[in-house]
Structure formats: structure tokens, C-alpha cells
């Protein structure tokens, strides 16, 4: 099963440059998980000041707001269960530092044949 993990950091300034030691530890974790088939993809995200939230209200009107939820990055994980995804996120947080990982299973639907 695939899961999306969104990391919400608490300990450091948004956009702060990680230390070389932190980058090396994260690199080792990424290499390990990639080799084991647990990590599909991961990327950092820009600071909130560079983001926008677009909403379509029930009245059919769009609103655009610059305020967004703090998120440092995301990862697509391959885990056998929600419990395994939780354990992977605990390990990630040990390397990344204080924060929260929001975990969501990615729903997988069987492709439907296209009518001729």
C-alpha cells in the first residue's frame, strides 16, 4: 500500500538551511528506505510565504489566500499497513527533529477499460 506523509516541522525556522550533519543523516535514511523499497519519492516544500491556498466556495466564488499550513516536505511511502507507515514516520522524525507527520493512505483503484 502507498501512503502520503506530510511533515509539519516545529523545531526550526522555515527555509533554514540544514546542517551538513543533518543532511548526511537524512541522506542515509533516504538511501536505506529507497534500497528497501519503502520510499517512492520525497521532496522538500517552499516556505509558507511562497504558497497560496485556492478555495471554491458553495457560492461558486474563488478565494485565494496566502496563509497555508506549515509543511516542510512530503514523502510517498510503500508500507504493508498503516502501522508500518507510522513506524516509518517515527524513524523519520528521529532524524528530522520535532514535528508532526500526517499520514494518509493513497486509494488505489483498478483501471477501468475505455469503451470503444
Explained architecture:
The protein is an alpha+beta fold and 116 residues long. It has one domain (2-105): Dimeric alpha+beta barrel (Alpha-Beta Plaits). It has helices at residues 20-36, 82-96; strands at 2-9, 39-44, 53-56, 62-65, 73-78, 99-105. The longest helix is centred in the N-terminal third of the chain and has 17 residues, at 20-36. The model has no long low-confidence stretch (mean pLDDT 89).
How is this fold's topology laid out?
Blueprint: E1 2-9, H1 20-36, E2 39-44, E3 53-56, E4 62-65, E5 73-78, H2 82-96, E6 99-105
Antiparallel strand pairs: 1-5, 1-6, 2-5, 3-4
User: Regarding CATH, which class?
Assistant: Alpha Beta
Unreliable segments (pLDDT under 50, ≥5 consecutive)?
none
Number of helical stretches of at least 4 residues: 2
Number of domain modules:
1
What oligomeric state do the depicted chains represent?
single chain
Instruction: Report Rg.
Output: 17 Å
User: SSE order in H/E notation?
Assistant: EHEEEEHE
Report the average pLDDT across residues. Answer: 89
Structural class: alpha+beta
The CATH homologous superfamily:
Dimeric alpha+beta barrel
Helical proportion, percent range:
25-40%
Distance between the termini: 31 Å
Largest sheet: 4 strands, antiparallel
The total strand number stands at 6
Write a brief structural summary.
The protein has 116 residues and is α+β, with helices and mostly antiparallel strands. Helix content is 28%, strand content 30%.
What keyword list fits this structure?
Alpha-Beta Plaits; 6 strands; two-stranded antiparallel ribbon; flat; 28% helix; 2 helices; 116 residues
Amino acid at each position: 500500500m502507498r501512503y502520503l506523509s506530510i511533515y509539519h516541522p516545529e523545531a526550526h525556522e522555515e527555509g533554514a538551511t540544514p546542517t551538513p550533519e543533518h543532511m548526511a543523516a537524512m541522506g542515509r535514511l533516504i538511501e536505506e528506505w529507497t534500497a528497501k523499497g519503502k520510499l517512492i519519492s520525497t521532496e522538500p516544500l517552499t516556505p509558507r510565504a511562497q504558497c497560496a491556498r485556492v478555495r471554491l466556495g458553495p457560492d461558486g466564488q474563488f478565494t485565494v489566500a496566502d496563509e497555508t499550513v506549515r509543511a516542510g516536505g512530503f514523502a510517498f511511502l510503500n508500507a504493508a499497513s498503516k502501522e508500518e507507515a507510522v513506524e516509518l514516520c517515527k524513524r523519520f522524525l528521529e532524524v528530522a527533529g520535532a514535528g508532526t507527520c500526517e499520514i494518509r493512505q493513497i486509494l488505489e483503484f483498478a483501471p477501468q477499460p475505455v469503451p470503444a
